[in-house]
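Teaching assistant here, posting this on the class forum so everyone can see the example we discussed in section. The complex has two components, and the goal was to see what a joint structure prediction looks like when all of them are supplied at once.
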Amino acid sequence: MTHLELTGSKMEVGTMEYPFGAIERKWQRLWKERRIVQAGDGLPKPKYYVLSMFPYPSGILHIGHASNYSIGDAITRLKMMQGFNVMQPMGYDAFGMPAENFAIAHNTHPRITTEESVTAMRHQFERMGFALHWDREVSTCRPDYYRWGQYIFKKLYENGLVYRKKSFQNWCVRCQTVLANEQVENGACWRCHTEVEQKELEQWYFRITRYTEELLDFSHVTDWPERVILMQKHWIGKSEGVEIIFPLQDDSRSITIFTTRPDTVYGVTFMALPPEHPLVQEWLEKEPDNQELHEFCHRVINKDKIERSTENTIKEGIFSGRYCINPLNGDRVQVWITNYVLIEYCTGAVMAVPAHDQRDFEFARKYDIPMKIVIQNPQQDLVIREMDAAYVEPGIMTASAQFDGRDSESAKHDIGKWIEENNWGRITSAYRMRDWGISRQRYWGCPIPIIYCDECGVVLVPDSDLPVVLPDEVQVGKTTQNPLLSVPDWINVPCPQCGKPARRETDTMDTFVDSSWYYARYTDPHNDQMPFDPAKADYWLPVDQYIGGIEHACMHLLYARFIHKFMRDLGWVKCDEPFARLLTQGMVLKDGAKMSKTKGNVVDPQYIIDRFGADTLRVYLLFASPPDKDVEWNDEAVMGSFRFLNRVWRLFETHTDLIVSGIMEGKKSDPAIPAIDADPNISGEFAHLRYMTHRCVKRWTEDCLNRMQYNTAITAIMELLNAIIAIKDTSDISPAEKAIFASACQVLPQLLYPFAPHLAEELWMLIGADNLLNDSGMPRFDERWLVLDTITYVVQVNGKIRGKLELPSDTTEQEIKTKALEVENVQIHIEGKTIRKIIVIPGKMVSIAVV
RNA sequence: GCGAAAGUGGCGGAAUUGGCAGACGCGCUGGACUUAGGAUCCAGUAGGUUUUACCUGUAGGGGUUCGAGUCCCCUCUUUCGCACCA
């Protein structure tokens, strides 16, 4: 753990700073008592639902959490000031392999460690001063939560969105479980980075592919980063093309392929099938003596799926001895079994056009398969013998019957139609995304509510028997297989249908299932009749502002959208998307790298909170960079935030009486607008302070509400503070000046509230407020005071600044031109030259073009 | 390879629509005060020169414009995502 370079002993001899510890604890207590987060269901106020991705309860509040929730809490407090009925709930994504692995390593039970961690984390969240609605806390590992996960599984099943399939799966040896495609990164487990192997298993799948088209449609989100939308679209990977049926020669069956290049269909010279293809499997059975074929297929199938699907794998194949017919031109086409076709994608078969596809080209060259040019390069005629790569660009069609001479790109659609008209196939789309495998062979997860009966087959657990409670009395880690297999009392149950002995499913669900609907559970977290009351969900959903890491772009955020759309189809929710606005916050880096225990560059937020306060940490995290960018941790710069808060504290401490009486003075002049406006005849530094006050409030408002750029909002506060402190002598000032000074100070607590709520609340009270800041409304500014009497014009000659000009704001354009030309330094630069043009930008500058 | 985002002082980063580049903070330099400190206050801080001023400067090169960090074209670098997807 890297601490600040500062030692504890130095702390003790340091000078006084504001008593943040006492202040923070006091307000944390008071907020809890006064329940500042309202979150009343259906309150007659506009609602605002702020949600930060719930954490895995590691027991330690990581700096990344601190950053994530500081953003969420800033938004929460802003929305409270705006008068919204705000909900900011918190819970725990508590199932999963880390808890189980930790329990194995420490010879304990995941339930014990998880609950301990939850308690520890709740304290740390409170110490950060987040305005969280603890009444709504959920934890996915508790039966009152996962009961409804099982219920949703059943609903999915009943709607044909769940199925079981045996196939080769990504298998992590370390985690002893299957991983979804989304959870494999560069051929390794996303969690433990162990290399993923292939294992044939029977698995439960969610048919997310039924929603592909809708998942591609982002028209119902209010504000999502373009980057995330693009990543999801890419992940779903829609390609438009044509499915074509190639009949086998001397056989009643056929091979269906998908292609995005129907324009090359006249150039097909072979078919490429993967060994897993049903036809190939059939041929293997028919020809038990074909040693070569058996050996090849066996070898390819058992090769690591990841390894097989990389570009640099050497293409291999074996001729099946069979042919099929190209329906468009009657060509006889060789059928090959290859290692470069993926069974999972589309129809699991490829029409090979070696002249116009690089992969097919390489393969055809290797095995001496004929090539046929059907797209000509308009620049230079292609000759097969001279080609050293496939010609994949568009061009002019040739040897393609009635399409000869046409531009290949524009002919694509007509060929598709021609194929449809002749019943050779159809125009369709293909998707990269596969169904979501949710089975995990681990103990610490939500049990799948399925029972296997010899008589009745696969039987759903009846609603009345839910939840299927995860048995606690399990020896975790004693076996290399699923620990649930060692609990016969739990596994062996009577069949709910026929009553005969049956067995429970021992797979548990991927934890991403748990997190796919938690945001909806928060709207009605204690409901024991249904997952949530649709009326309550209708009030709160969609989540107005969701905050989380980019790493979930193609996992959690995609799964949650899928489940949400399913719940909408059931009528449980009305909106089309779960998360209206999404903010992907950056990581906290140290020395340019992600913090990690192994690198030893972890900063402990608790250490900072104990020494400099939660307010300091929060201000630092938000000030260091915009919320969606990474924050570079810097020990020294944290001190800057601490000093800033200290300066604010000192200002209020030294001038308490002045501010309080100044506020009274301001109220006298205009009771409707407290303090902020006073004598219009003010000039000099107080006029400037008044201008700065209104300017900073305006900038803060825009940065907070429109731009969500809290670093510049904090900058605006610092600038106002500097402007106030710049006034050195307050001993002998007029009542109007006093009111201006006070109004500048009075607005500070409001401006600080989203970022440093404890100090802000303390100062608000100090200057005599009778409400809490969440009820104080938004700080106000008045355009009247943003209009300056004089404007500084910049004068450019040929684009270079040659002078400045102070002019009354009502100067006419003609006068401005005249004055600009009179500036001494301007005259030097235009002397002896011809003025071609003078451009006046009102309120800003004069640009003179000379030759 | 494909797709996307980004490149600004010693550092984090500002510059909202093309209009004073470097706000704000850190660090640094000098000074004041002193209870000798991670305190506070004052001055300075893009680089350069012949310093009331001028020149150069937002990865590099070109272009549009009275005017470009911002718009257009090319190149380079970095980061991220996808990667035999037919």
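For the discussion questions: The first strand of chain A starts at residue 47 and ends at 52. Chain A is about 35% helix and 20% strand. Think about how each of these relates to the inputs above.
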